Fold each of these.
Amino acid sequence: MAQREQIRTGERGVLAHFGHMDEEPMTITEGDGAYVRTDDDEEYLDFTSQLYCVNAGHSNDAITDAMAEQLDRIQYVSSAKDNDARSQLADTLTEVAPQPLTDVFFSISGSESNEAAIQIAREFQDASTVLTRWRSYHGGTYATAGITGDPAIRLPVESHAATTGNVKFLPPFGGADAAFDADSPEELTERSLAHLEYVIRNQGPDSIAALVTEIVGGSSGAFTAPPGYFEGVRELCDEYDILLIADEVITGFGRCGEWFGSQTEGIEPDMITFAKGVTSAYAPLAGVLMRSELGTALREDAMDIGQTFAGNPVACAAGNAALEEYDDHLIDNVRELSPALEERVRSLADHDVVCDVRGRGFHWAVEFADPETGELVFDPRVEDGYNPVADVLTRTREKGVLVGGGRPLIQIMLSPPFCVDEDDIETGVAALEESIEEVFE
Ligand code: PLP
């Protein structure tokens, strides 16, 4: 049996994350810009950026050359020592991030960054409760699964209370299962903030260490907050002495048209967690940007946290080169082409089965509901049931375009690399639109 078939049937090989591989897993062997190629020589326009990571596109010479050059000099330096590539990256990160964030703690993955941020917040605040949001995703490790709103991720660890205790959830801003039925964005802001203040007061402000939030929802559905919401959150966090942690694992590094999503909302979080786009996924690297008070506390209290591979020099060299590419032209490309992408994706809302289109910059979700009732088209948790959204994904792929499945799979995610052009945008969205028509109409 071919290895690929054995992997698919689960007999041997790579264990898939999140419990499953695609039904017909493709073997991607090469990439170039916004395109990937498979072992059977098929080419696909990659509108997923491979899990929202490869912002600079595949096979970017500036990044691979910088990595090769670093490998020639030295491949690894312990995180207890200094390293020039690592310091350079920290300098640039603190320049492009919202200004009060002066210190960087490097880690390896987004999950570990969120783990560190929660641990630092709990230690610094001497409080344990973390506020987070339903329909969010913050990671696949124990504690981060516990602050993830997606039940498929959270429920299996929820009974392990020692790792996930003291977490309270806030509602998302929209989608078919929106909690607040507001008549206007302003009313939604008002109601969401009133609800947050109610939770804070009743939970007891002194017991709350931090509020963790994506700025634009990630794989759980590209939710954008109504105008003024995040400013209000910042004010409430100041008033009640709660640390505001922005999980920018997806929204960092230009995906929303600014270096960080927080800047698109005009807010200054106390910590920003980042990963994916920092190296454009040329090497695993992540971290936590934080205010100087927190950095100082970490230095002085010497909280013993860290990981062997955190801030690896080759990964940092990739990060330095990726950040130059973003600065040089890639974030400009996102700004320039976002209106065209937004208009084209929003046009999908003309289809009756599409109940919501939302997002910002180069990160969009298209959610499906029954046109008559507005209810979800199906229950995505029913095992082995036919899922029309999965069918749309497959058909779009058969047309040569990769789009992503959101969690839960009632939505489709579009997050192209920043190197696409207007023709790519049309090709990508048109393939999705045709597939929606085939499946639903
Ligand atoms: N936070 C968000 C918003 C994410 O989208 C992800 C991963 O998709 C993570 C955290 C976890 O990052 P990682 O998979 O690198 O651990």
Amino acid sequence: RKILVLHGPNLNLLGAREPQHYGRDTLDAINQRLKKQASQAGFELETLQSNAEYVLIDRIHACTGDKTEFIIINPAAFTHTSVALRDALAGVKVPFIEVHLSNVHAREPFRQHSYFSDLAVGVICGLGAHGYELALSHAIARLGEQV
Ligand code: DQA
């Protein structure tokens, strides 16, 4: 059974990028922890980071064919701009959790609107990389109930 983690633009720079907002963990370290957590629970976990909107959209579309059951997504700056990414998630109807490392509500006003939150199962923000682990543990529990 398959869970997909999507990381949006600039998250490839994690570790070096504005650590006061995003912490010191690299994306690779985060992904490795998530893969371990998923495999211990008997799930397959795929991760993808892209700076290109269409790559994320195409990957979401592929979920229909590859039976992805849950998505964890940090849309990064696309959170605040992308109707297209929103429509992709709405189109495939795969349940998802929206994660942000920083507390977007404590930052600039333009970060306080998300094109995703009303479609999400839930939203986690401000807990740093731990937010992904909490999202994954929820996804695992939820999928475990739907045998
Ligand atoms: C972010 C918050 C966004 O506003 C920002 O553009 C990002 C990262 C976060 O994880 O805190 O790139 O999604």
